[in-house]
Amino acid sequence: MNRRISRRNLLQAFGVSALSGAGGLAAFPGALRADPVRQRDSAARLVDGKIIQPQRELPVLHETDILVVGSGPAGVAAALAARRTTGAKVTLVERYGHLGGQWTGGLVLIVVGMYGKSRVQMTRGIGEEMMRRLTKVHRGIVNYGPGRNPTVDAEALKYVMVEMVVEDEVDVLLHCWGVDAVTDGSKVCGAVFESKSGRQAILAKVVIDATGDGDVYAAANAAYEHIPYHIGLVSRIGNVPHPPPKPPEGAKPPRGLGGITPIEGARWVNMQGPTSDALDVRELSRLELNHRRQIWRQVERLRETPGYEDVYLMETAPQLGVRMSRLLDGVKQLTYKDAQAGTPYPDRIGYSGDWTGTDYEWQIPYGALVPRKVDNILAAGRCISAERRMADLIRVIPPCFVTGHAAGVAAAVSLQDGCLVRDVEVAKVRKILKEQDAYLG
């Protein structure tokens, strides 16, 4: 027999009183109740045509020794290195639901810039460990070997990174977007995050900004250069025939087939994109919409080519391909002139190779990770201190490994020795990096 169930009957069926109070409506999982995180009379108000945000106390979500913000290649390497160096308490925070940054979420799957002159491999240490572990995962990596530029599978890499941070007992928080810095004078003491739990702070003894965009050091008022650059969107296509069918006489092979991946028939397709401002949300939104339309139409055109009728769009990257945005004003700056000349740095913490075909190899000084005036924070990844032309070289995966690895070790050493990161004994950092299989020449 059908009958209408009243709200009171429904609550009683779950053993909940229709009245609020102990055992009442407030105890019901779906009941309306005040949010303890946000209930601080802190809602923004419209006052005389202006939006006013009242002062409020932020809850402390967590306290840690070393806070790494951003889990791309630099961030993961930094977290693992810091943890392994002294056993410090390390927290890795990521705005997405996975690790890997542009390497995974941006589908930038190829690893270029690992080699220098005479094809000497200069990216070793934790980055090399990740790739070695991928060789043990089914379809995890292809073209891995001396002198080659390997390509990884994003899902395999996400898995490997999770395994590594879990094994080393790094504390990981996902779905947290870093929105501000916690400072005491010129000293950074943590960061503020937005998540489904509201706005909360994480306090730390040392902070590593591996956000790619320098979000934390910018919030702490460290000086930086703002760089507009190409922003694209990477995709993967499937059912690409191999070997490729012979085109009709007089016809050219189709464009947009991209590069190989560890999965047969799947290829990753890069997109340069226009020069745009990665710090402008309207511009990011416009690009996202336009790029997705462009990718779909490109695949449809490819499907009209004889032999490629079964090609399909597997996925578009969940995050835009931002190549650069902020560059730190650091104690030292990487310059293209120094890269060409092979300028030596007494405080070098690693090397990288030029992936553009010039065969340069260049050193990375520790000072490029350190802000000029703000204390207790290091940069790692593509947002370190470099001139514009050089920034195009440091944004790829291998130098991100190198700077992340060094930042993690330096943060741990500064805590162990009780000094600021700008005053850390670089010789000690270099010694530990060598022990962790990093290449220092």
Key features of this structure:
22% strand, 10 helices, 441 residues, 2 domains, 27% helix, alpha+beta, 4-stranded antiparallel β-sheet, FAD/NAD(P)-binding domain, single chain, 7-stranded mixed β-sheet
Secondary-structure blueprint of this entry?
Blueprint: H1 7-13, E1 45-47, E2 50-52, E3 60-69, H2 73-86, E4 90-93, H3 125-134, E5 141-142, E6 151-152, H4 154-167, E7 171-173, E8 177-184, E9 187-195, E10 198-209, H5 215-219, E11 224-226, E12 229-232, E13 235-238, E14 259-260, E15 267-269, E16 275-276, H6 281-303, E17 312-316, E18 321-322, E19 326-328, H7 336-341, E20 348-353, E21 361-365, E22 377-379, H8 388-394, H9 397-417, H10 426-435
Parallel strand pairs: 3-4, 3-10, 4-7, 10-22
Antiparallel strand pairs: 1-2, 5-6, 8-9, 9-10, 11-19, 12-16, 12-18, 13-15, 13-17, 14-15, 20-21
Describe this structure in words.
With 441 residues, this protein is of the alpha+beta class. The strands form seven sheets. Strands 3, 4, 7, 8, 9, 10 and 22 form a seven-stranded mixed beta sheet that branches. The chain starts with 6 loop residues before the first helix and ends in a 6-residue tail after the last helix. The protein has two domains: 60-227 and 324-435, FAD/NAD(P)-binding domain; 229-322. It has helices spanning 7-13, 73-86, 125-134, 154-167, 215-219, 281-303, 336-341, 388-394, 397-417, 426-435; strands at 45-47, 50-52, 60-69, 90-93, 141-142, 151-152, 171-173, 177-184, 187-195, 198-209, 224-226, 229-232, 235-238, 259-260, 267-269, 275-276, 312-316, 321-322, 326-328, 348-353, 361-365, 377-379. The protein is 27% helix and 22% strand. It is globular. It has ten helices and 22 strands. Mean pLDDT is 91; it is low at 1-8 and 10-28.
